[in-house]
Specification:
This protein has about 140 residues and is mostly beta strands. It has 2 helices and 11 strands, in the order E-E-E-H-E-E-E-E-E-E-E-H-E.
């Protein structure tokens, strides 16, 4: 399944090649203050490939907080956060915000809550390396 997504204005777009046609897509509503305030709901498939295109990189802000181990890509024109990335061992891993999907039936989405408070940095990076999208290309 090829999933397309974008911020509201279209400055940040992506194609997520899920590899297979899923019967359901697990999504996580992170309980951190940033994700809660933005309404971000994340998914990833470690077998998938993600291609991100940024039309105007001057209109993208990368926001990192707390552990500074992930960058949230915020479109400064429309305020939407379509993805977050984490560089681990010189490789880029990513999750995508399902609220930015354009061609996915919402009935496929299986939502759960996720809390990462108190997670140590090494454990956090190991979890991302295992569960996040590991084939990520970002172009401007």
């Amino acid at each position: 399944m090829l999933i397309r997504g974008r911020c509201h204005c279209g400055n940040i777009t992506f194609e997520l090649d899920w590899i297979s046609d899923p019967t359901e897509i697990g999504v996580r509503a992170c309980t951190c203050a940033f994700c809660t305030k933005h309404g971000n709901v994340w998914t990833a498939n470690p077998a998938a490939a993600l291609k991100v295109r940024i039309a105007d990189s001057a209109l993208v802000s990368k926001y990192a907080f707390e552990t500074k181990t992930a960058d949230f890509h915020v479109c400064t024109r429309c305020g939407v956060v379509p993805l977050a990335t984490s560089e681990i061992d010189s490789d880029v891993y990513a999750v995508v915000n399902v609220n930015t999907f354009e061609n996915v039936d919402s009935a496929l989405l299986r939502k759960s809550s996720a809390t990462f408070d108190g997670e140590q940095t090494d454990a956090r990076l190991a979890r991302r390396k295992k569960n996040w999208i590991g084939r990520v290309t970002i172009s401007s």
